[in-house]
Amino acid sequence: MKKFTVDPEFKSNIPPLSDEEFAQLEKNILADGCRDPLVLWGQLLVDGHNRYVICTKHGLPFDTVQKEFASRDAAMDWMDANQLGRRNLTPDQRSILRGRRYNRTKKAAHDGGKGKDRSESQNATHLDTAANLGKAHGVHRATIIRDGKRAEAIERLAVTAPAQAQAVIDGKKRFNEVRREIKLDEVKEAAALPDAKYRVIYADPPWKYGDQLTEDYGPVKFHYPAMTIKELCALPVRDLCETDAVLFMWVTSPLLYEAVPIIESWGFTYKTSFVWDKIKHNMGHYNSVRHEFLLICTRGSCTPDEKQLFDSVQSIERTKHSAKPEEFRTIIDTLYPHGKRIELFARKPAENWDVWGNQS
Fold first, then answer.
1. Is the pLDDT of residue 222 over 90?
2. What secondary structure letter does DSSP report for 170?
């Protein structure tokens, strides 16, 4: 039996086979033997880790071949390039492998410049590197640059949340899914609901949609961490409220019916609504959804303090994703000038309002 070492770092960087894929490989080797030799760099195994495990388990013979590399980084880059030839990788696994190759090349170029500030020439070299890798792997240069950032993000994640990083590397979870989970946890942990009572509640929940529209225009998940109906219902909002309170809650047309259990869980009863006519076109599956609802709900007795009547349809041109017109806050302040007030899922401070949530 050949003597060599299985390097933990080398092994951990290889996207693992699924149980089904490993079982099929084992079946093939038992039937036909280990046809492909294991690749060594000196005494280190750089390719054939799964074949080695199977052959060792069953006492089967295998061959080895030597490959020379200038450095450890060069060996790992060859391993990543070799793994990219697999057909069973997830899009995220391919992205991370390409990104690691790009980042190593950038690092080598920077080290070649003896640590000096990146010059225009070095920037051009990085762009050429991205273009060359993109051509080699059949993707655009911009994709390679994005892959580099994703690979760096996974490295950071491996320090702060190793289990979640490994789930992406193993192909068990998508990178964006893990990123949303972490952001949602940060919101929950870093922004505990305040220990106070409020008469006026204003909420723009981060609804979780089931669609898969484009990243440039569409699902809320691309803009901030979404929450399920169950998660929204579980928020102890009723503990924030005075006996007599009012809730103003935003909901989009496709999710109008989903708001009911949340309203009830928070201890309110639906009364009426405002309609925000956004004027501009918005993508939808059945029509151009250019409006959004601001539901008005109460608990106890909480009719408006002022009798001024505002038009139930407000035509205000929309701006950036999810941003709500300040005109609606003015309406709320006009109708309910008295009592302590809080905005849930706030994105910025507001005068005379407490705020809670994923603030920017």
1. no
2. T
Is the Cβ–Cβ distance between 210 and 219 less than 8 Å? Answer: no
Reported as half-sphere exposure (CB side, CA atoms, 13 A), residue 268 has a value of: 32
User: Which segments within the chain are labelled E, that is strand?
Assistant: 38-41, 44-47, 64-66, 198-203, 241-252, 269-277, 291-299, 313-315, 341-344, 354-356
**Chain centroid, CA 244 distance in Å:** 38
352: left (phi over 0), alpha (psi -120 to 50) or beta: left
Higher-pLDDT residue of 285 and 168 is: 168
Q: What is the pLDDT of residue 214?
A: 35
Mean pLDDT of 312-321: 87
Q: How far apart are CA 203 and CA 184, in angstroms?
A: 17
Instruction: State yes or no: pLDDT of 220 exceeds 50.
Output: no
Q: What angle do CA 37, 42, 43 make, to 5 degrees?
A: 80
Long-range contacts of 109-116 (CB under 8 A, 24+ apart): none
Beta-strand pair 44-47/38-41: antiparallel
% of residues, the chain, pLDDT over 70: 86
Q: Which helix (H) or strand (E) holds 150?
A: helix 141-160
Query: What secondary structure does DSSP assign to 10-78, as a single string?
Result: HHHTSPPPPHHHHHHHHHHHHHH---SPEEEETTEEEE-HHHHHHHHHHT----EEE---SSHHHHHHH
How far is 157 from 123, CA to CA, in rounded Å? 27
pLDDT in tens, 69-108: 999 999 999 999 999 998 889 999 999 999 999 999 888 8
Q: Dihedrals φ, ψ of 118, to 5°?
A: -65, 125
By the 10 Å C-beta count (0-12 exposed, 13-18 middle, 19+ buried), 347 is classed as middle
Cβ atoms within 10 A of the Cβ of 31, count? Answer: 7
Q: Is the dihedral of CA 336, 342, 347, 351 positive or negative?
A: positive
- The pTM of this model reads 0.55
